[in-house]
Amino acid sequence: MLPVILFLLFAIIDFGRMFNAQITLTEAAREGARAVALGHSAGPRVRSAAQGLSPLTVTATGCSTTPGPDADAVVEVGHAFEFITPVAGLATMFGGGLDGPVTLSGRGVMPCLG
């Protein structure tokens, strides 16, 4: 019974942290897309919005100097999430596989101002 209770406790802790990191990445990607749509660099804005998450990978597709009506600024942010509890080890006892970090990503899209 103890392994099941521990698995549930560790899963609640780590999956809660993972959900929070996913929300933070999505918001950081939106902030980066907003910055790119306004003609600024996405990197500093994304890193400011995603404090506490590192390392981050940032990919930005900017607006041209004369954007069309359908032009969008797109920013994608990635993060390798690490578990802090032994939930991965306990998951293998139940037939699951959570070895290594989980890659999370967020995507932000904003229309170009022109």
Describe the protein in words.
This protein is an alpha+beta fold. It has one domain (1-111). The protein has helices at residues 2-37, 42-49, 87-93, and strands spanning 56-61, 72-81, 102-111. The longest helix has 36 residues, at 2-37. The model has no long low-confidence stretch (mean pLDDT 88). Residues 2-34 form the TadE-like domain. It comes from Planomonospora parontospora subsp. parontospora. This is TadE-like domain-containing protein.
Write the layout of secondary structure elements.
Layout: H1 2-37, H2 42-49, E1 56-61, E2 72-81, H3 87-93, E3 102-111
Antiparallel strand pairs: 1-2, 2-3
Helix pairs in contact: 1-2
Task: Please provide a brief summary of the model.
Residues 2-34 form the TadE-like domain. The protein is an alpha+beta fold and 114 residues long.
Number of domains: 1
What is the typical, i.e. mean, pLDDT? Answer: 88
Largest sheet: spatial strand order: 1-2-3
Nearest-angstrom radius of gyration?
A: 18 Å
Give the N-terminus to C-terminus distance in angstroms: 62 Å
InterPro entries: TadE-like_dom (IPR012495)
Organism: Planomonospora parontospora subsp. parontospora
Protein name: TadE-like domain-containing protein
Pfam family, one: TadE
List keywords for this structure.
114 residues, alpha+beta, three-stranded antiparallel β-sheet, elongated, TadE-like_dom, TadE-like domain-containing protein
